[in-house]
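ZP: hey, is the methionine sulfoxide complex queued? I don't see it on the tracker
AM: it wasn't, my bad. submitting now with these inputs:
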Amino acid sequence: MDKQKKAGRYSRIYKQLEELTSKPGTPLSRMATIAAVLHHKMDHFFWTGFYLLEDERLIVGPYQGPVACQELESGKGVCWAAVIRDTAVIVPDVTQFPGHIACDARSQSEITLPVKDKNGNCRAVLDVDSGEKGQFDEVDQQHLDAIIKLIYI
Ligand code: SME
């Protein structure tokens, strides 16, 4: 998808999510809504979901797509990289990322972003995988970053 088309789609998704997440709920229910909307509106999203950071462990949270790893080995992989680096991580080719955890061999590119609460503490990671290489760029980073700010309100 070209960048302009992608940005337009993200803007429409953001408006929908803004409304949906303004209804009574919890961070967990908002994560579930975000995963469902993103996954069904973005054709190239193969796996869309959250890993929850609890007691220094990353445990799977709400997601859409094929069944995923229940827990991610500490300090390893793209999700932990987002926590450790405290910023989004874009991986154009997962085979080139040392320590990448392949929950599903069909996943080929990936973006992860730390999800923070109001105090700036990391509480989860948003992880999106694509079945094709090179699917994520700064447009995804910018828009997904805005979307995850709807979780801890
Ligand atoms: N690839 C991730 C693991 C989670 S799955 O992609 C759903 C990682 O390396 O952390």
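AM: back. The beta strands are 47-54, 57-64, 71-72, 89-91, 109-116, 122-130.
ZP: great, adding it to the tracker
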